[in-house]
Structures are given as structure tokens and as C-alpha cells.
Amino acid sequence: VAEFKDQLFHAAGISPSRILEFSCGHVIPGRQLLPVALAQGPTGSTLDFTFQNREKPLVVSNGALHTSQLYVGLK
């Protein structure tokens, strides 16, 4: 968390006194959590889930397709 705060907030000049931190345990056990970073979907298109693009059909369908392929691969 400290590295994240340094890179995101402190680098932007935000005073540490303005940063509030809250954390709690996961709802699911860590052994059942698989973090995955995806830059492209199965069709090769960029997965850009920014506010402007997150509802575009191509982004949603590629994200869903990639997620379903990961799920099938884990079974």
C-alpha cells in the first residue's frame, strides 16, 4: 500500500495528511482469488475500462470473453 500511495498520491504532491486509508478482510479466501492483468482481449483489441470506454460493446464483450476463457481454463 505504501508503494501505491507514493506512486499515485505523493508523486502528485498530495499531502499525506489528506490521505485516508481503510482496509478490511476479503470476503473470499485468498486461495480462491486470482488477480489477472489483461491489456488485450481475445480479438487483440485493447481492454480500456476507463469511464469513457467501459460501456462500449467491444470492450465489454472482449472482457467477458476473456474472463470466461480464464474460468474454463481453471476448471
Q: Assess the beta-strand content as a share of residues.
A: under 5%
How widely separated are the two ends? 32 Å
Class by SSE composition: mainly alpha
Give the CA-based shape. Answer: extended
Q: How many structural domains does the protein architecture include?
A: 1
Separate helix tally: 2
Average pLDDT taken over every residue:
81
Please tell me how large the radius of gyration is. 17 Å
Order of helices and strands: HH
Largest sheet: none
Q: Which range best describes the helical content: under 10%, 10-25%, 25-40%, 40-55%, 55-70% or over 70%?
A: 25-40%
Total number of strands:
0
Oligomer: single chain
Overview of the molecule:
One of its GO terms (molecular function) is helicase activity. This is ATP-dependent DNA helicase DDX11. Keywords: ATP-binding, Helicase, Hydrolase, Nucleotide-binding. The chain has 75 residues and is an all-alpha fold. It has one domain (2-74). Helices cover 33% and strands 0% of the residues. It has helices spanning 2-8, 57-74. The chain is extended and about 45 Å long. The model has no long low-confidence stretch (mean pLDDT 81).
Summed up, what is this model?
Helix content is 33%, strand content 0%. The protein is mainly alpha-helical.
Give the key terms.
about 80 residues, 2 helices
